[in-house]
From TrEMBL:
<dbReference type="Pfam" id="PF01813">
    <property type="entry name" value="ATP-synt_D"/>
</dbReference>
<keyword id="KW-0406">Ion transport</keyword>
<dbReference type="GO" id="GO:0046961">
    <property type="term" value="F:proton-transporting ATPase activity, rotational mechanism"/>
</dbReference>
<keyword id="KW-0175">Coiled coil</keyword>
<comment type="similarity">
    <text>Belongs to the V-ATPase D subunit family.</text>
</comment>
<dbReference type="InterPro" id="IPR002699">
    <property type="entry name" value="V_ATPase_D"/>
</dbReference>
<feature type="coiled-coil region">
    <location>
        <begin position="25"/>
        <end position="59"/>
    </location>
</feature>
<protein>
    <submittedName>
        <fullName>V-type ATP synthase subunit D</fullName>
    </submittedName>
</protein>
<keyword id="KW-0813">Transport</keyword>
Length: 208
């Protein structure tokens, strides 16, 4: 641990550091509050997508029980052909955002497939889109949560470590310098008294 120098140069340095910390802390605190709000929004969006996925799956099970038949295959009815993501800046943190989801439908004959296949295809598209959106929202929440934790750690570092430590250093240096100044004044006075005493003694000897 570096020992702090007890002098005016060190005092000025510590005061400058304290000024810097106090200037940055409010901005960090504001960033943390904004990130916490964004994290809440991300949690809500993720929970919403999760519920929508569960609802669609329930719908498929309740309204299309015939899917359990082994003689019917739903493979390749729909296929994801393109997924494009963009980046969004959330309080200085880049997070993914869905831009495009393209799904291709495999042509099928109305005569070869049951009448409910159209409805199934519609639900499958919903499930695919929701699944992709869910994965992206998980990533968004993860990145925002990470940024919130890092920013909170920085706020704590400034408010609970750096600022108190710097204030303590400033106080320590000021006390030391003040003591030195008092000692210097006292020594000067003592020297003056000694000079006067010696002079007084010399005057008395001359009188004798």
């Amino acid at each position: 641990m570096t020992k702090i120098a007890l002098n005016k140069s060190s005092l000025n340095k510590e005061k400058l550091s304290l000024k810097t910390y106090n200037r940055y802390l409010p901005a960090l605190e504001l960033k943390r509050q904004q990130l916490m709000m964004e994290r809440k929004k991300a949690e809500k969006a993720l929970a919403q997508t999760t519920k929508q996925l569960v609802d669609v799956e329930k719908l498929v099970k309740s309204q299309l029980p015939m899917l359990a038949r082994q003689d019917f295959s739903v493979e390749n009815l729909v296929k994801v052909t393109d997924v494009q993501l963009t980046e969004e800046n959330i309080v200085g943190t880049l997070v993914p955002q869905v831009k495009i989801i393209e799904i291709a439908l495999t042509p099928y004959s109305d005569l070869a497939k049951p009448h409910w296949v159209d409805y199934l295809v519609e639900l499958l598209q919903q499930m695919i889109r929701l699944g992709i959106e869910h994965n992206v929202r998980q990533l968004r929440h993860k990145e925002i949560d990470k940024a919130t934790i890092v920013t909170s750690q920085r706020v704590n570092l400034f408010s609970k470590v750096l600022i108190p430590k710097t204030k303590k250093n400033i106080h320590k240096i000021q006390v030391y310098i003040s003591d030195q100044d008092r000692a210097s004044v006292m020594n000067a006075k003592l020297s003056k008294i000694k000079v006067l005493a010696q002079k007084s003694q010399g005057d008395r000897f001359q009188d004798v």
